[in-house]
Structures are given as C-alpha cells and as structure tokens.
C-alpha cells in the first residue's frame, strides 16, 4: 500500500540532503530515520529498566510480584519508580515491536 504525504519544501530539501546510506529514495530515508528514532527510544527505555533493576536488585516482574510499593508504604519515590519502570518495560516491548514491523515491511517491500 502506498500513501502520498505532503511536506514543506524545506523538509523535502533536508531529506534530500541526508546522506543516509547514500540512497536517493525518500521512502528508504524515512525508514532509516524511523528506525533510528525507535532505536533511540529503545535505548532510553532499556537504560531506565537497567537502572531500576540495579536499584531494586530485581526485575520489574519480581518488583510487581513482591508488591514493593506496598512494602515501602506507598512512598512517592517507590510509586514514581514503579510508574517510570512500567513505562520503560512497556516502551521496550512497543519500540521492539515497531522496529520489527518496520524492518519486516521494509524487507517485504524490497521483494
């Protein structure tokens, strides 16, 4: 399926000037930019997950299963960590799924 989108001349010029893989194909450049953004977000979420795993010396599933927010008296710090950690874990899954879908679609379009 192909969709036509309109961008300003300025954005089109920036896309044309990018040397991403030395390809002139705008669709390929946009795919590369999307993949780079998904990987950037994946890295951010993975770092957040790793930091909380180190802080609490367990993974998110164990954190939830042991109800550490309850054990810590629902303090703001632990509640906030739980929300941020859950966001990171969900973000990892979502970004990986998006990246995989983009890669599959790109490979499928090539054939």
Present the secondary structure layout.
Layout: H1 9-17, H2 26-56, H3 60-65, H4 68-71, H5 76-110
Following the backbone from N to C, one meets helices and strands in this order, namely: HHHHH
Please, how many helices?
5
Count the domains: 1
Q: What radius of gyration results from the CA coordinates?
A: 20 Å
Please identify the structural class as seen in this structure: mainly alpha
Proportion of residues in β-strands? under 5%
Describe the global form: elongated
Major sheet: size, sense and barrel closure? none
Strand elements, count: 0
Helix content: over 70%
Notes on the protein architecture:
The chain has 111 residues and is an all-alpha fold. The protein has one domain (27-110). It has 5 helices and no strands. The chain has helices spanning 9-17, 26-56, 60-65, 68-71, 76-110. Helix 2 (26-56) runs antiparallel to helix 5. The longest helix is centred in the C-terminal third of the chain and has 35 residues, at 76-110. It starts with 8 loop residues before the first helix and ends with a helix. The model has no long low-confidence stretch (mean pLDDT 89).
Features:
111 residues, mainly alpha, 5 helices, elongated
What's the short story on this structure?
This protein has helices at residues 9-17, 26-56, 60-65, 68-71, 76-110. With 111 residues, it is mainly alpha-helical. It has one domain.
